[in-house]
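Lecture 7 notes: from sequence to structure.
We start with the chain below.
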Amino acid sequence: MQAVHPGFRPIQFPRPSAAVYRRRRLTVLLCAAAVVFAGFSLLKGVGLHQLTGVSSGGPLTVAGQPVSDLNVRLAAEVTVIVQPGDTLWTIARRAQPTGDVRPLVQRLEAQRDGRMLMVGEHITLSLGK
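Predicted structure tokens for the same chain:
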């Protein structure tokens, strides 16, 4: 058994008011509702577009005009600046992030005629097949 100092009294904090308890309960309730809603949304696949009313099932539009009506051209050439540590493979992957880069690396090798890469050099890559 421990000896307790005769003058020892536990610290007593003032009891919070009823308004404080109501605010705390409301905050916990709102947080729990947000967690439940987020979990439900993830399970059901509800995305932000459905919450905002923007439809994702229709055709792609830009400023109300269908993309097929716009004069759209894809970039056929990309200019890359050689960085320290770059190889033909890393340059090709940077220019073409997806897919097989071997044909692009072969075109780069043929274009360079065996010359070394120099840091800061500008290389123009044609991405067309």
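Points to note: The longest strand covers residues 77-81. The helical segments are 18-44, 48-52, 88-95, 102-112.
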